[in-house]
Design a protein that fits this description.
alpha+beta, Conserved Hypothetical Protein Mth637, Chain: A, seven-stranded mixed sheet, 2 helices
């Protein structure tokens, strides 16, 4: 993938795929982007890290934040760890949106969804 200038995000124009390095903090108070954490984007997720709940919540959160369908988001590496490589199918406008969200943390809080039973 071609580099967009940041180590945590890569964009490949030919395949229209964005690669993200994400550091997930499960069991958080709410779902939110916490900003950059070294060479990754830190995202807090309210769901616990059991039974794939945090991964599912991460995909749903990213889909809502970027206004893309969940099927266009895939966890490529790190499904069982906190550090993940996530791939999103979409255009360059998503890269710009992600970079803005990483910097402007005041606009990215998202209310915690009520878990379904």
């Amino acid at each position: 993938m071609a580099d967009s200038g940041s180590s945590w995000i890569r964009y490949d124009a030919a395949s229209r795929r964005i690669g993200l390095t994400i550091r997930v903090q499960p069991n958080a108070r709410r779902n939110e982007i916490a900003g950059l954490h070294g060479d990754s984007l830190k995202i807090r997720i309210a769901a616990p890290a059991v039974d794939n709940k945090a991964n599912a919540a991460l995909i749903e959160f990213l889909g809502e934040m970027l206004d893309v369908p969940k099927f266009s988001i895939t966890i490529r590496r790190g499904a069982t760890g906190r550090r993940k490589i996530v791939e999103i199918t979409g255009g360059r406008e998503l890269v710009v949106k992600l970079e803005a969200l990483a910097v402007d943390r005041s606009t990215i809080r998202h209310p915690q969804s009520t878990p379904s039973t």
